[in-house]
Amino acid sequence: MKSRNVVRLFFSTLLLGGISTLIASFFVKSNVYADFLNPFDWFEVLGLVIFFLALGFVFSLISQMGFFAYLTINQFALGIFRSYWPMVQIALIAFALFDLVYFRYKGVENGTITPFLLTAIALFVYSWIIARIKAKETNKKAFIPALFFMVVITSIEWVPGLRTSGGDYAWLMIVPLVLCNTYQLLILHRLTEKK
């Protein structure tokens, strides 16, 4: 990949992370915005916009680090596991989904498992769709690695958000992570293809 494309990927993903977090903040943190809209305090609203934009940049950087770490790990794993690597990835996908449900539910004293189950199912279904698109645009062998990246790597990147109390930042974090990971996964083969 040319250095120009690396820079383009970096800044476009950074922008996507910032804008998506800002938009998500209008829904997740609407009460914070409401406090400064009546009466309107433009300085505080501007501060919130800058804060959530910068937070999105951070989430985007986490996504980008995860993406390039995955590209490196995938090459090492192909050398170590060879033909068994797809099966190892499937096992890790199952473990990551189990982890998203069981270990998060285990930490809740009074509550139902349904929200945790729905979160894992939604991530898996979305990841399946994106992996199908990736496989269709490249080749069939790209399906399992794409699914692995979207489920396992996104789950690992999401850990800091999941450890916060209240859950607002968990939801605020997953939006840019999923969007940035999707964008990077689907744009990579376009940036690396030879004209």
Automatic annotation (TrEMBL):
Q: Mind listing the UniProt keywords for this protein, alphabetically?
A: Membrane, Transmembrane, Transmembrane helix
Q: Which residues cross the membrane?
A: 7-28, 48-72, 84-105, 111-131, 143-163, 169-188
The UniProt entry, under InterPro entries, shows:
KinB-signalling_activ (IPR024164)
UniProt-listed GO biological process terms: positive regulation of sporulation resulting in formation of a cellular spore
State what protein this is by name. Answer: KinB signaling pathway activation protein
